[in-house]
From TrEMBL:
Gene3D superfamilies: Jelly Rolls. Fe cation binds at residues 68, 70, 112, 114. This is Pirin. It comes from Drechslerella stenobrocha 248. Pfam families: Pirin (PF02678), Pirin_C (PF05726). The keyword Metal-binding applies. Belongs to the pirin family.
Length: 319
């Protein structure tokens, strides 16, 4: 059997996953002056276990996310351009630069701030992705933690001269880089594809998966043309996803492929708090207001970067 026939046979026995829906990421306000494009955590897709939210954020120097709480979930922040400072009430602080990732486990409770670092002279916004991942029930009350993954630590696969894949976590293009980004197993692949490029990407069976497009136009599974700022939600059938950029396109495509193992557990979410029952949510509010059960350090605490942020905003308003 020729290699071409073998490839065709493989497609028949391992077809790509179906497309469940395509959700546009509509721009909206969030935080303090920030603009985000949200595609998970909306009325069209409230949640997609284990994923609770996906924001494509755009932060100028006058925007950010001052002191705010979390409980019961993890966040994965991927800085695409610019830089973002972070600080929390455990004493952890730092900066993630372009290409870096930060993984934050809220567990039993954390209060933190995320503020853009000093802007470059061209005034371009800080751009990135933030993904919220549900915590397994057994870990809802774990201690909070942070971990960083620097751009230089991310391997790059080049399955062809027209396709580059940053294998943040997962397997792609012959690169095996399965990392523990969160307590819940997650794959995260960042793909840049030039016109004429194509990719057949396998995905773990039984996991939920989607493709989020950030630039250019792609064709998914040979039929569906998708423009930028859309979330292509995949079904659980099939073996993976096929993506190409037609040779006639004038722009490279930039997109991420994400997959996660869903947990068999209820999800009750109220803003930044994610629990298993309504009773747990009510208790979370009580704990937060009374500085207990994980929120003890909130009392009297205020982040330095949050204070500086508010001072800059007050100064800019006076000017």
């Amino acid at each position: 059997m020729t290699s071409l026939n073998m490839a065709s046979a493989e497609k028949i026995f391992n077809p790509p996953r179906s497309i469940a829906k395509v959700i546009p990421a509509i721009e909206q306000s969030e935080g303090d002056g920030a603009r985000v494009r949200r595609s998970i955590g909306t009325h069209q897709l409230r949640r997609f276990p284990p994923f609770l939210m996906l924001d494509h954020f755009f932060l100028t120097d006058g925007a950010g996310f001052p002191d705010h709480p979390h409980r019961g979930q993890e966040t994965i922040t991927y800085q695409l351009s610019g830089a973002t400072n972070h600080e929390d009430f455990t004493g952890s602080s730092g900066t993630i630069q372009a290409g870096d990732l930060q993984f934050m486990t809220a567990g039993r409770g954390i209060v933190h701030a995320e503020i853009p670092a000093t802007q470059p002279q061209d005034g371009k916004p800080n751009i990135g992705l933030q993904l919220w991942v549900d915590l397994p029930a057994r870990l809802k009350n774990c201690e909070p933690r942070y971990r960083d993954l620097r751009a230089a630590e991310v391997p790059i696969a080049r399955p062809s001269e027209k396709v580059d894949i940053k294998v943040i976590s997962g397997k792609a293009g012959g690169v095996d880089s399965v990392k523990d980004l969160a307590y819940t197993p997650v794959w995260l692949l960042h793909v840049t594809m030039r016109p004429g490029g194509e990719l057949s990407q396998p995905l773990p069976r039984g996991w939920n998966a989607f493709v989020y497009t950030m630039a250019g136009n792609v064709v998914v599974n040979g039929t569906k043309r998708v423009e930028r700022f859309n979330n292509v939600v995949l079904g659980r059938d099939g073996a993976g996803v096929d993506i190409r950029v037609d040779a006639g396109e004038s722009e490279d495509a930039d997109f991420v492929i994400l997959a996660g193992e869903p947990a068999d557990q209820p999800v009750v979410q109220y803003g930044p708090f994610v629990q298993l029952t309504e009773k747990d949510i009510h208790k979370t509010f009580e704990d937060y207001q009374e500085y207990k059960n994980g929120f003890e350090r909130r009392k009297g605490w205020e982040s330095k970067i949050g204070q500086e942020f508010h001072l800059r905003r007050r100064h800019s308003f006076r000017v």
